[in-house]
Structure formats: C-alpha cells, structure tokens
C-alpha cells in the first residue's frame, strides 16, 4: 500500500495548526486580541498576526514570527493597530509551499473588495485547496501566499454577491474540510464553523457591548469576558454593537467534534462542549487505571501534558502521585544544538528525571499519546538510568494510526508507530515492563459518552484513531492515499 | 526603627542571584558549561557568561544578556570558546551601581596577572564589598564593573603570593559574606565555598578524566556527569586531569546552609545535603497538613513552586489534589504590558483559574512563600471570581520577615508583609478564610532535623525567617540597618 | 487653479524612482544582479529585490529594505538565489498607499501562471494605474501591494495568450505612461521600453553567452559587460542563450527621452543616446557661462551633482575652479536628528563651506537644479557666513515648474519655487547677487541638439520645464490637475 | 635586516586611528559631541563613544560600533547622555590584543578615583605602552582593555596628587609617544598635546560661555563654533565656564607636527597651523606639475583624496581637469564580497572609469600616496581597459618608506612598495608611462616652508618618508626594529 504523504515537520508530537480570536465593541481591540492570542499560544507558536479597523485609520495589519508576548506587547507596535474591532491568528506551520513559511503566509489575510476591506483567519484545513487553487489560477487569480485561506479570499473576489458576509457564504460553500473562521469587515465581526464542527469556536461577551470569538474559553478568561455559548457546527454568526445574528449556510449534518482537542490540543483550563478539558483528561486517567491496572509504587506524568491523566490514574488506583520527571521551564522551541555531542543528549535538555524519587521504585508513567515512539524510548532510558525497578507506560489516548487532514500536523503514516506495530510490539520497541493505551470506548466514556463509542454514529471525529474520515480528503486521494472509510 | 535598604527589583518574589558551573578534562568544555547553565537558569535569567581556555587560542570569553538557550547554543558563538577547561555563570541582577546591569558586570570576570590569566565567578554576596572597594580605590585600583567579584580580583592583584590558587586564598580571607566560587587558570578548575557553606557547590565526574563543579546536581544530570560529593563548607578544591586536591583555607565554623534553597531556589530534581529537594518540599506540605489541618474539597498548588508541597498536603490530609490554577507556559519574563488596561490584568497573563474545577468547592491553596502579599491577593481574587466556596492559604515556609544579605534579592524590609503584620492580619489583608505558615520547627523537620530547630546551634541559615544573621553584614550596618542578632 | 497632487516625500531634491537590472547565461546570476544594482543605487535607496531561477531550485526571491551593499552581499542570502538567470530592482519610494512602503511592494513582483512563473520589475510610472486597478478589482483581482507593477501582473493573468512574452505584450498595450521593464520566465530574460522611450534601458553582453539589461551603462561596467546597444523606444527584446529576439508591440511614435536623466538622475560615468552624461553636464556649464557670464574669483560646485557643470563653467569662463563646499562622505540618508537644536542646523551635517578658500572671494556657485529653493537659501547662508564677497548662483537646468508623472518623485506644484516666482523673485528669495538658469535651448544644445529645442517636435521629454506632457496623465486629470499641453 | 612588525589591517591605505572632541558650557553637550564626531568620522569609522556629566545623573557613557550617524543620533540613546559637559572619540582600530576590538576598548575610558570620576580619550600612540603595562601589572593593576589609554588611567590611579588635572600631568609625564588628549572631570574640560605636537588639537568657543576642543576645525564649523586657537605643543588647557587656564607640564622642544595630516588625514575644509588643508594639497599639485611636468590631454584625480592636488596640477600645467574616475557614493566599508568572482573585481565596486572621457586620451592621474601599490595597479588596469592612450601617475607625497608609530596604522615595512623599490621599479611594477612622487622639499614648500625642508631642524614629523623618528619607539626597539635615525 504505497502512501505518499509528506509533512514539513517530523518530530514526535502532534501539532494543532492554529488559534483564532476576534473582538468588537471595545476600545483598543488589538490589545484584547494580543491577550487572547497569548492565551491560545499553545495552538501555534511559529507566528501571529492581527488586523484591526478604525474609522480614521482604516484597516491596519501586523504579522510577526515568534511568540505573541515578544511582538504584540510593544506599545510601538500596538499603537499601529487602532480601532474597536480586530481579529488575530496564531499559527504552527503551513501545509504551504517549500516547507518554510513566508511572512505573507501569516494570517489574518486581508483583501480589498469593491465593497470594502475584509480580513479573515481560519483554524482547520481545506481538503480541496489544491484543486481549488488550480481552478482559480486558470481563471486569472494571482496567489500571493501558500495559505489555504487565500482560496477563500479569491472565491470571495469572484462572487457576485453584494455584501461581504454573503460572499463569505458563497466561498465557504465551495470549500471542503474542517474550519473555524473569524473574519471582519469595517463594522462586523464574523464567525463560522464548518458543518461538522470539527474545530472549536467560542462566543463570549465583554464589557457592555462587546463580543468575542475565540478558539477556546481560556482566551475569554484572560480578558475577563464571559462565556456566552459555542458557535454551533455549520453556523455563521455576525456580531455588531447591535447584537449577534445567526445563519446556517450549509447543509446540516450530525456534528463530529475533534476528540484529540480533549486529549491534547486544548488547554486544561478550557471548557468544550460543556466539559472541562482538565476533568476529561483526569477521567481518561481513571479509565486507564480501570482498564489497565498495575502494581506499582508511584504514578508519574510525562510533563506537562500527561499530568491530569496521571492524577486521575493515581486517584483511581490509590498509587501515590509524584513528579518523577521535571521539565525545564526555560526550554524554548529554539534551542539550537551546537554540536553532535549535544544533539545526542536530546530530550534531556527539556526533561530531567527526579532520580532521588524514582530510584528503586516501580513507576507508572502516564503520557497523553504515542506518535513515533522515539520520545517514549528516550524517557524510558532516562528513568531506567535513574534506577527505577519497573516502568509501566499508560497512554491517555488510543493508538494514533492515521494522519489528520483537518488541521493537525501528523507525520507520514509510515512514521506512526501504531500504524506499524501492535501494542505488544510497541511495548517491546520502547522496552518497558508493560504498556497500555486507553480504549476508544474508554476515551468516549471519559468525554461524556457514558455508553462508549456508537460505531454507527460516532459523536466525535476520531479519524486519527479509527481511520474513519468524516470528510473526503480530496487532494490526498489524488496523491494515492487509500482511505479505510469515507463518511 | 528606621531602615534604609533599597533593592533594584520590587516585585513579589525572592530571587537567587546566581548559578555557577565549571568543567575540565572534556573536549569543547564550553558546550558542557552551556548545558549546565541552562539547567541552572532558574538561578538567574538576566545574563550569562562563559570563559574557556585552549592552549592555542588562550582565554576566550563571551557574555550575553538573556537566556542561555538563546545565546550559548549558536555554533557561531560556541566556536569562539574552544578548549577543554571552561567556567560559566548565570545572574539574576546586581547589587551594582545605578540599578541597570552593564555587560561588563556579567561574570565570569577575567584578569591577566603576571603569572597568567584567571577567570572567576561567584554565587553569593560579599557583605564588606563597599568598604573593600573604597580601600582598594584609595590604593590605586581602577574598578571597571559594579560587581562584588571585582573586589576579589583586585585583592588577588595585590597579593604577593606566587600562584593563582594562593592569591585566591589570600583574597577570599579578606572578604566577608556568603559565597561559592568557581575559578580557572590555564590548567586548573578551582571551587571554593565560604566557611558557613551558605550557598551550594557540587563536585561531579564526567567521562574518564573530567571534573565538574556546579551549583546544583540537576546541572550534573544534564551532561550525564555523576555526583561525587559536595564541596564542603570552607573547602577549596583544585581539579586537574590528575585529580582533585583539597584545602581548608578558612577558620572552621559550624556550617549554616541556606534553608531557602530547599524552600524555593533549588530545582526539585536536585539533591542537597543528601536530601531530595522535591521530597523535602513534599514533606513541608505534610508538616503543614499536620500543623494546620482544614476541611476542604480540593488541594491546589500555586504553580509551579507550590506543587510538591501541595502533593504532600493532599497525601497527608487525604483531600484530593487538583490543578485548580493553570500556568501559561509561554509566559516569559519580558511580557511588556502596553496599556493601563492590560497592566491592571496583572497576574492573569501568567495564571488562569481552572474555573470548572474550583467552582463551588472549598479549596486549599498551597504556595511556597509570601513576600509582599500582593500576588496572594490577586490569586485570591481570581479564585473567588471563579466561584470557590472557601479559600484556605497554606504557606510552605515561615513568615519572611528579614532581608537576605547573602546573595538573595529581597525587597526593602518595609515591603515584607510579615515584617509588618501578624498571621491573622495577613489573612485579613489577603481576604481568605484561613491562612497558615509552616512553623520554623516544622520546616527544620521536613529538612531532616527530626528534633526541629535547635535555637543554640541552628543547622541552617534562616535569617530571612529568624533575623539571626550568621555573618555580620558590615556594609549594611554602616547604612543604619539594625540587626536583631549577629552571630 | 486648484491643484490637488500630493507626494509622499517633501524634501528639496527630485528622486528617480527605480533602477532595473537583469542577466542571463552566467553562473550565479544573482551575484551579477547585486553588483549591477549597487552601481544603480543612486536611482533608488529605499529597498531592493532580486528574483533568480534555477532548474533544481525553481524561482527564488529576496526583498530587503536598505542598501544593496548591506543586504545582497551576504553569502548566506546570496546562496538562496541560485541559477543562471536573475533580475533585480532598486526603488526610491512608492506612489503606493499610505506613504510607507511594505516589503511586499518591493519589486521584482513574482506570479505563478498556468504556463509557469514570471518575475517583473519596472522603472517608470503608469499614468492610468488607478483606473486599471479599479477595473481589475471589479473583475475579481485581489491586489497585494500598492505597486503599479501589480496591474501588469493582473492584466497578464487575465490574458488568453499562451506564452508569457505574449501576455506581457497584451498587458503593456493596456497601460499608459513611461516604463522600462525587465522580466524573466524560466528560460527568457525580457526587456521592454515604452513607445516614447522615456526611461533608459541598455543591452550588454557578458562572457561568451550572457546577456544583460540595465538602466545605465555604469551597471554594465561594474560586471565587466560590454555595451551592445540601447533597447529602442517601443521595443521588446527576448534574451536567451541562443541570442536576442526583437519585437515592436506598440504603435511607433517619435521618441521623447527624459532630459532630466542628463541633468541629474543618471551617473556621470554612464553613456546615454551615445552621449557621455558627464560631458553633457560639463557642456551645460559651458552654455551657462556663455548665457550668463559674471566677473568672479572662483567657480565652486554644490557637491556632488553640480561638479561637472562647474568644471565646464570654469573652463569656458576662465575663472578658477575650487572646492568651496565640502561634502561629508559619511552622511547617510538616515541621519535622524535628535533635537530641535540639531534639526535647525540642517544642511551643515552634509555640507561644510571651505571657509579659508571662499573668504573675501566673489564666488560662482553651480548647482544642478532648484526645486523648492530652501536648500539654495541654506547654502547661500553658509557661504555668506564664511565671508564670501559676492555669491552668483548658476543653475544647470531651466526652472523646474511642473511635476513629473513618469517615474520621478516631484513635490506638489505649489512647492516648486519656479512655478510661483520669476527668476528675479527667486534671486531675491534666495538672497544672492545674481541667479541664472540655463535656457531650454542651451540645455538642448548641451544634449547634442545643435539647433536647440524644436518646439514642434522636441527631442526629449521636458515636461518638468515646459509643462508639455507627451503622455496623458489620466489618473491625475481625474483629480482635477490642469495640464498646459497634452501631446 | 629582519623586521618583525605586524599590523592588524593589511589593506592599501593608511588610516588615522582617532578623532577626539569635547565641549563644556552648552545644554545637551552630548549632542554637540555627536555632531563633532560626525565631522571627524574620516579619522575613524570602526566605533565611537561619548561620556557626559550632569549634576543629577552623574557620569553617563555610551560606546557603539559603527558610524556616529547610525548610533549617536537616536533620541533614545542621546537622552541617556545628559549634561553640559561631554567628550567623545571615534576610532579606526586598535593596536590592541588579538586583532579584534572589544566594545570595552572603545574610548573615552572612564574611571572613578577617590576624588571623583574622570573620562579620557586620546588620539595618537604611546610608544612605551607595552613596557608601562607590564610594570603596572607587576604592581597590581588590572587591565580591562587593550587600549593604550588605559595605561594613562592606571598611572593616574597611582599618582599621589590631590586633583585630577595634577594626576593627568603626572601620568602624561611618564608616557612617550604622540598624543592629543581630551579629558573631563565633573566640572572641567581638559585638553593636552604632547611636547612635539604631532597630532592636532583645536580650541574653539561656542555660544556665550562654551568651550570646544576638537581634532580639526571642520568639527568646530559643524556646531557653529568659532576657532580660537590651537592648543600648543606641550600645552595643557583646562576649560571651565570661567575661562581657559593654560599649563606647560612637559620639557619644551621644537614642535614636529605630522606632515601626513596635510597630505591625507585631515579634511580639506580644515585649517591647521594657519593653513587651509585644501589649499596645501592644491599647492602640492602645483609643485608636482613644476617638478614633474608631462604632455597630456587630461588631469584626473583618483577620487576623492587626489582631487585638490589634481586641480592644482591642472592649474599649474594648463592641462584640462576632468573627472575621469567616478566614485560610487554608496560604497561603505562593509561591502562583504560573497564569491571569489566578485572578490576578483576588487576596486571596481568603489571606482569606475568614465570611459567616454578617457578613451584615446593621454591622462595624468593624481593620487595622494602609494602604500603597497596594488590599488595603483588596479586603477592603471581600469584606465587602460577604458582605452586611455597614455597614463602618467603623479603622487602628491614622497615615497612612503617607513612605518608610523605615532597613531597611524601602517602596514609592515616589507609591504611598503617604496621601501623595496626605486621610483623606476615602482613605475614598471604598476605599468604606467611615467610615475613621479613630489619631493620632500616640494611637500615642505607646499606646506608653507618656502625654503623646503631644513635637514637639521625639520619643521614636521616626516618619519614615514624620511625614517627620522622624533620620539624613540621603545616598544618597537625591543622587537628588533632597526631605526635609521632617532632624534
């Protein structure tokens, strides 16, 4: 089965590709966006952008590589983004051309139409972007970026509708895939979720008259906004100072929210679908302890993402919880390793075993997921070097066996260890005393589906675990990718 | 009681002023130093420096503001630091002139003597530096930095001893205060601790013939070095490829290691005095739970420093442990707040309450210490806003009532809340349902002194809690500072 | 007569807006382009860009603000521009939106068409760009820059021709104004001049098989290329390794080369229309000496642009030539003046009078042109302060009375001193003993038209002096600009 | 005759090592210093520094690599340099350790003495600095820089005099060599010249009460100061708001001003020793035309330094003056050449022949000096390639045969072409039709010594031409350098 997918990044974690945020009806809206993006930084660290609108200054825009805190906090920059309406975006990387991102690929994108300007940012991935782009170029569109989002812009430019919201509807009816979108005109803040609602989008209120759209609730908290409701799957909301209008431009289907948002992507202090992300993860740990109990002295998380599940495992099993691995808080994503010597030290720059704690102990290690398995190996080595008597891996998600086409950067399928090996083979490869993944049913139970997963109508998008893709990844099929099931 | 101390930084945490590291007998020693300093970054984030020696290139030096990972990882810089012998330093800030640090204040300092070059770096604070500096200037020394360490250099320059190690002894016999020193000549790596051993200094082995000196054991772990022993209070070690020579140049006295290293400064994965720092902190939590029990639903740490004590409190009390407050991992020390609006949001940039978890619950919050009380107030506000039913603060150290003169940056005594208020007044000021500090005896017990603190011969320097200063802070006395007790 | 023109820059010199360069058939073509642009830096100092093509790497592009020497000389950058075919551009400023240039406005622009990529750069100005842009947006084009050149790109995208050269012809037939263009496909280097040939474009050979296009011959010299011929007005050349093809896609008209290129823009070591620029300027000085003789002790240039005419004036008049004003060679365009104090010193940062030389002397000062008159006033002050007995201004061009719409940045007409005052009034305003401009006939004679200017068929575009515009500035007419004469 | 001198820079020009400037009695003195240093930038382009004193802020200092205009013009920097008294320095390079300059080597140096702070900057070179440094280190001084000037500071620190001016005298009596010094205390601006007065130092007045010290008069002009007089050889002046005090601390000897300041270093608009530098250079050209006439069509300068002499040559000989070589005004000192290809193009990046002017002509080329001869060769190649019929080199200084030890960076003697070859051999090496240097007598005549050079008592230091060193270069003698004559 020849598979020809390639991805720009090849490390051992999955990465969300975006966080989005918009606000209207507040003074210095760009400052709010900066704060919201800071709270969403875990969804994308490569670059960020903000567009604002002010009646006197018109549309203003800024795009920068690097963290929000290092760019969008300088008064000199923020002063260039005046107005009471603004949207922003943080990105991880691009499926764009040539592997490296140009600053022009950084969203929000902005375009001037005959009826006025429009800025747009999206979280997700369009599965027919390649085909759309080819078609648009054939008709005279000039693409300036490698970003999917630019297809939406060009589709809008060619729409014969008279208003920007109508043109957005026109354009989004032509795209396939998973997307949550925030957009703005001179007077409107607009939010849209695809029909399945794969990516999250929250609606909040701020101050007397302000409205906020954000990928997660933690971004409402940081600006003191109150959570109003989620934008519904397939819904378009238009927020102005007069209030919120709601539209449903797409064919209605049963929603399929991304279950991996619960497992790893979202922040533990966010609430999605009425459920605390932290609490969900803690419950996954409880499910794991029930499904895969073990005799041991300590339960230790692989920090930081394994922590809530490790707490749940400890509480369910009665085995004491301990910080057996310590994370260096000064580790950035840009520790450039100068010599072969240091490169070989790998993960120890970031993590160190708390030797005095684990020595001679039987340790349960709880991690959120296993992608390639190489990190798990290194962690196992570290903890054995420190003298642990036994190591039992417990993974707070089912085996990751399939790539995501809906906005998550997954390695080539051939690199996914669970696509190639059974649970027992993985255990042997990593070299631990036992290894267990939570079951798909267990995961669903922790996420609030008491009965587990209903195979005829699963509540979530779980394609990375099940291979059942709810939206045809058209561009990929052209490259020869064989799908197990297409919904 | 008029007190006239002022400190350059005025925020609500105590800060260690330095971390030191040295290595000999390895290829590309500066790379090892960079890694060691990265592991010690929590001891100082303002700047770092490395000096190396190579027979062909002589002494090479580099000093940079900012994190180790951002500077001492670039091949272009590291190539300028060749050789098999190197030392380094990270610093928090200076007691130096004019509040801002110049790059020339960044250690290690280097000087060329008639018998060859010497680089030197120290962690601690000289309590007679002002007087020494005046005396040296009167005799024709020209000071180039605001650093205490330069006094040591000038004292060495005026010594009539023939070798650098002897000159170091001469110089260190003239200084007062707390210090751990690493120094290097063309062939020797030298480590010294003051007679009381206030600051830590560890000796390790690396490879076949290499020796390492480091402030903490976590810096040995990162380079795969093995812990040999601590440099003893009052000891000078001279490490060469032939081995380690040991000297005791100072009058011997009973050691007084800094107890705050256990409470806050050191990393939880370090071992000091044969005790795991993590485990000590966990035990402080247990002591707290015994000394100050409370009925509650959840035990939550103020992250990250309160975490081990919160785990201990939970284990002792049986109250479930939970991450009720989430720390934004992308928070740097340089989040410049652009507007009044944002400035007022304060601590929420860094911390967010996990609203869904704490709502309606009686919460025990465990923090490592209370300095000014302002952060505690903000955390209390956050957690009450999130709907907690009750808030009980438990502090894993006794009230911080006195400034440190031995290398820790403490605010003016008038700013220390515990110097002005009783425990009950602090509780009222912060506005919580209950508030308790661990007792000094409880702290000593957690640190391994089963019998608690022996008031006639305390095992640790605890001046910040007790006001009993084991070394006369001469310079401070001249400014009118009244001491409670001078050892 | 209400005139509503505004220009982004308001200083007292005219500025060429661009220099262009292209080369094919040489190894590391981008290096040649960097050198060529360095030689053309006087035509634009704000920013520069290079696009290259290599079969393996495809199209590569780099755009930078600042001097060529500071950017396009770093091996690390130049290595990213491989291939044997490359074009480049230096720009002064943009007539673009909002006064400040974005990096995306920096040429060459690049677009991917169905039949392959094309990069394009132009020198000149399109006089119907505003109207074209509106029309293109109405039909769904999305503009990404404020650059005129982007109109050409979108016109090409909408052409139904099958090859890029044909699409370029299609597009250029739709634009009005003055332009010299260099463009490139994967295999062709293309050059075009508008029908009047307002802006220069030179064709040269380099090595065995290489071809070069450049704004001026000085850019051929720097790479050791030999001058072949000028691209003719209205000609398109297509250079490949097989040779040069020539086309004439536009209606043929009598050429009107910009006379100001001789007066000021071009470098003195360039040859245009078979005439040495230096020699032409020297002859303008001779004409001036004949038309406006004066008794004096010294002839001094206003450096550096007045130098050749001053030499000619001295040679014709017999009055000794001297460097009475010295230019500070370390003056950049970015001397930011820190205080009111220094701002008032103005021109002295750049120029200083050679006091010992001019004291007590009757001085003839020769300058290339007078735009607003403010600089002339300051120079007059300087030279009088230094004790000159008399000051006689001689200007090596006729009065500049009309704005340029063909690629030169001219101030608002109301700011042009010669549009508001007679020669005598200007003399009084500046405050000198005498002031004379060369006549338009004298200028034509120096440029090789022995008989002077033929009013029925002038050989040059001299609209800035005569107000006779050979191409309708359509966009300007819409703003209410009244033309004296439209050809 | 083995000679073992080495110099850090190896190119084909001589370089002055410094320019100095000081001012007192004006508001925002540092702004004046910035302007003065900008005017003196030709004396040193590597780095610059300013120290200012303000009663409230104390001493402030800033040092930067790069041009004055790029650093000391930013309001943000200049605001950190308050006060009405300031001094500054620009440097070319250092005779310092290891070839590369550290920022700490950049003057003015500053030191805190028991009686207050003192900043000091000097132009020149101490010929016994190596010996002094060794002696000072033996007595406990710690050197922080590679700068000669630090010897002066340490000598001052060890003086038992009570005031800083007296300590400066003490220190300067111990040093040998050539120096002009500006220094400042909290209230005094101090200037000193060595007994021979080798380097220039000018005194001026500014405003009602202000005093200025500057290397050249052009730096007085830029701030609108009036020239008062030169500081005399061997004089110390102390300027305060009360006026100027004068002292003569050294043994009086006959002055020997550096003749090369006239030939090349000083700016043409400066006046030294009552003589215009421009006029002196023009007269050297006249002398050359008398001493070495030739039949030719054009006299062309090698720009820019050969220009005044070329004008003089033309005026004396009647041969027309022309700009046959054009200098690229955008050439910086930092054009990094990316490829072998470009490296071989060498001088053409900076200079281009005005081909149309020189073709078929017999050209006299006038240059200021010949150091290694390699540049002359390249210029000859350029001008022959352009088709000149004959090339006659005329050099406006005698053959440069000996290194300078008084503050000018000269290459190793073995690299000086005139130390190895006769005039005829040089002509052949360069490959021109004729080549003549002006005679030493001719040079003296142009400099105002009507009778030429008096060999028993030469008026100038001309060691670079004559090998007669007026001050023993002690440090050099120790390295084995054989002197022809020591005065």
From TrEMBL, chains A, B, C, D:
* UniProt keyword annotations, A-Z: 4Fe-4S, Glutamine amidotransferase, Glycosyltransferase, Iron, Iron-sulfur, Magnesium, Metal-binding, Purine biosynthesis, Transferase
Q: In which pathway does it act?
A: Purine metabolism; IMP biosynthesis via de novo pathway; N(1)-(5-phospho-D-ribosyl)glycinamide from 5-phospho-alpha-D-ribose 1-diphosphate: step 1/2
The positions annotated for binding [4Fe-4S] cluster are 258, 404, 461, 464
Q: Which residues bind Mg(2+)?
A: 305, 367-368
- Annotated Glutamine amidotransferase type-2 domain residues: 18-242
Active site per UniProt:
18
Catalysed reaction per UniProt?
5-phospho-beta-D-ribosylamine + L-glutamate + diphosphate = 5-phospho-alpha-D-ribose 1-diphosphate + L-glutamine + H2O
UniProt enzyme class: transferase
What would be an example GO MF term here?
amidophosphoribosyltransferase activity
Tell whether Transferase is among the UniProt keywords.
Answer: yes
What biological-process terms (Gene Ontology) are attached? 'de novo' IMP biosynthetic process; purine nucleobase biosynthetic process
Q: Which cofactor does it need?
A: [4Fe-4S] cluster; Mg(2+)
Q: Which family does it belong to?
A: In the C-terminal section; belongs to the purine/pyrimidine phosphoribosyltransferase family.
List, alphabetically, the NCBIfam families matched.
purF
Function, please? Catalyzes the formation of phosphoribosylamine from phosphoribosylpyrophosphate (PRPP) and glutamine.
What is this protein's record name?
Amidophosphoribosyltransferase
Organism name: Amaricoccus solimangrovi
Q: What is the lineage of its organism?
A: Bacteria, Pseudomonadati, Pseudomonadota, Alphaproteobacteria, Rhodobacterales
């Amino acid at each position: 089965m020849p598979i020809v997918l390639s991805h720009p990044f090849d490390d051992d974690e999955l990465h969300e590709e975006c966080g989005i945020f918009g606000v209207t009806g507040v003074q210095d809206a760009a400052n709010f966006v900066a704060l919201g993006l800071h709270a969403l930084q875990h969804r994308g660290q490569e670059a960020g952008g903000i567009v604002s609108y002010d009646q006197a200054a018109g549309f203003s825009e800024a795009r920068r590589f690097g963290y929000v805190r290092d760019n969008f906090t300088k008064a000199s920059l923020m002063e260039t983004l005046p107005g009471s309406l603004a949207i922003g975006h943080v990105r991880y990387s691009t499926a764009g051309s040539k592997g490296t991102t140009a600053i022009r690929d950084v969203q929000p994108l902005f375009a001037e139409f005959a009826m006025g300007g429009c800025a747009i940012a999206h979280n997700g991935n369009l599965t027919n972007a390649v085909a759309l782009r080819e078609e648009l170029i054939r008709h005279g569109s000039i693409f300036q970026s490698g970003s999917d989002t630019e297809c939406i812009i060009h589709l809008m430019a060619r729409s014969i509708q008279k208003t920007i919201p109508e043109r957005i509807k026109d354009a989004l009816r032509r795209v396939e895939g998973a997307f949550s979108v925030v957009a703005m005109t001179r007077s409107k803040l607009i939010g849209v979720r695809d029909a399945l609602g794969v990516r999250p989008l929250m609606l909040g209120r701020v101050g007397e008259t302000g409205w906020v759209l954000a990928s997660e609730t933690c971004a409402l908290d940081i600006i003191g906004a109150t959570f109003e409701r989620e934008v519904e799957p397939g819904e378009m909301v238009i927020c102005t100072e007069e209030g919120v209008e709601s539209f449903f431009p797409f064919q209605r289907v049963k929603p399929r929210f991304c279950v991996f948002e619960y497992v790893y992507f979202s922040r533990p202090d966010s609430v999605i679908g009425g459920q605390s992300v932290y609490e969900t993860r803690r419950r996954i740990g409880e499910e794991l302890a029930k499904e895969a109990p073990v005799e041991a002295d300590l339960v230790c998380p692989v920090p930081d993402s394994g922590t809530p599940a490790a707490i749940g495992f400890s509480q369910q099993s009665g085995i004491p919880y301990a910080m057996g691995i310590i994370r260096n808080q000064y580790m950035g994503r840009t520790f450039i390793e100068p010599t072969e010597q240091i490169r070989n030290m790998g993960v120890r720059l970031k993590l160190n075993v708390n030797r005095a704690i684990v020595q001679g102990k039987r340790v349960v290690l709880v991690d959120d997921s296993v992608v390639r398995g190489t990190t798990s190996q290194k962690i196992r080595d570290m903890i054995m070097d420190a003298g642990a008597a036994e190591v039992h891996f417990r993974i707070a998600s089912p085996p990751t066996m399939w790539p995501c086409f809906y906005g998550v950067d997954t390695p080539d399928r051939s690199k996914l260890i669970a696509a190639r090996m059974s649970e027992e083979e993985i255990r042997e490869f990593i070299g631990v005393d036992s290894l267990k993944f939570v079951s798909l049913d267990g995961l669903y139970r922790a996420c609030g589906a008491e009965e587990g997963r209903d195979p005829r109508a699963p509540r979530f998008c779980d394609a990375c675990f099940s291979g059942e893709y709810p939206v045809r990844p058209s561009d990929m099929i052209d490259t020869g990718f064989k799908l197990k099931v297409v919904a």
